[in-house]
Amino acid sequence: MSKRSPKADETMAQALRKPIQEETRSYYERIRELIEADRVEAARRLLAEALEKGDHDEDLSGWQRVLAPAKVRPVKGTKAPDPTLDFQWLKDHSWEYRGQWVALLGGELLTCGLTLQKVVADLEHHPEKDWILLHRIH
Amino acid sequence: MLTLRGDRFTCGRATFSDSSPFQLEPTAKVYVRVKFGNLPRTLLVQIDTGAAWSILAPDVAEAIQVPLDSGDPAKLSTRFGIKHGLLVKVGFTFIAEEGEHLATEGTFFITENWPEGLNFLGYSGLLDAVRIALDPQANHFYFGPGV
Predict the structure, then answer these.
(1) How far is CA A21 from the centre of its chain?
(2) Tens of pLDDT along B13-25?
(3) Fewest CB atoms less than 10 Å from the CB: which of A1, B43, B45, B144?
């Protein structure tokens, strides 16, 4: 077995000795960077750390809101009708209405238009209030 | 509804479309009906568990009057390149044909210069709080609140 020279050991020790850099960026900026890199769990951990330490004067309430899990709750109500006929209409007719919004109900086209605003306005007095499907065909 | 070891797993079921109505993306995806905010109509959204964030088209955001002044600015990489926009909480409801609907408030990215009507439900701040299951043979989409 060969012996490692004292010089080699010293060199390795020096290479591992990295200066500790003090973090100068704000929590707000660091969290933003993680969010923009899609590193959401890391952003949540850093936010939790910032809130726990509390030794800063940054307003992180916006990131608290953005990073909070979604609120979900079941809601009783009228069951929706099966949309299969509307989906079939889209398969059969999408190419005729490219670039337009369409409004469908029971596989029938109710109206169409270039903007969502126009289609919503067309349907303002339609008796069906719940289950009309609006879709923009690209 | 679906159960897991005797406990309720999901609360509602809907039919999904797996053939893309979008010419932009011809491969099969999962599209479900939802209702946004106070808009008394349904819209199709794509379930995209591979996306970090959900995206709401600007014309839909305008129609449901999303309060953009409450949003936080961010710059995200999207399928249409890097976009500047806002991260905002938006309320919507998964529509059930069987069982109960699921009212949700999740985080959406809203940016100008985005195709009209193109909405995605992504993982963070939205699907990570929802139980989902697919029956691809029947085109059934099951959903419920996460634990």
Answers:
(1) 33
(2) 999 998 765 555 6
(3) A1
* Residue type at position B76: L
Beta bridge partners, B75, equal B84
Encode B58-83: b = buried (16+ Cβ within 10 Å), e = exposed: bbbbebbebeeeebbebebeeeeeeb
Q: Is A62 an 8 Å CB contact of chain B?
A: yes
| Residue entry with tokens 């059930």 | B96
Q: State whether A69 and B60 contact (CB < 8 Å).
A: no
Q: What is the pLDDT of residues B98-119, one digit of tens each?
A: 999 999 999 999 999 899 999 9
**Whole-Å CA distances, B127 to A25, A118, A119, B51:** 31, 31, 29, 10
Distances (CA, A) of B60 to A1, B8, B36, B40, B108: 72, 33, 8, 12, 12
What CA–CA distances, in Å, run from A108 to A121, A128, B61, B79, B97? 18, 13, 26, 32, 19
- The CATH class for the domain spanning B3-135 reads mainly beta
* More confidently predicted of B19 and A112: A112
Distance CA A90, CA A135 (A): 9
Annotated domain spans of chain B = 3-135
Q: Beta B42-47 vs A133-136: how paired, if at all? A: parallel
Chain A residues within an 8 Å CB radius of B106:
70-71
What is the amino acid identity at position A66?
Answer: V
Question: In sequence order, which residues have a C-beta less than 8 Å from that of residue A127 and are 6 or more positions away?
Answer: none
CA separation for the pair A127, B146 (Å, rounded): 36
C-alpha span between B56 and B53 (Å, rounded) = 10
Query: Is A83 in contact with B128 (Cβ distance < 8 A)?
Result: no
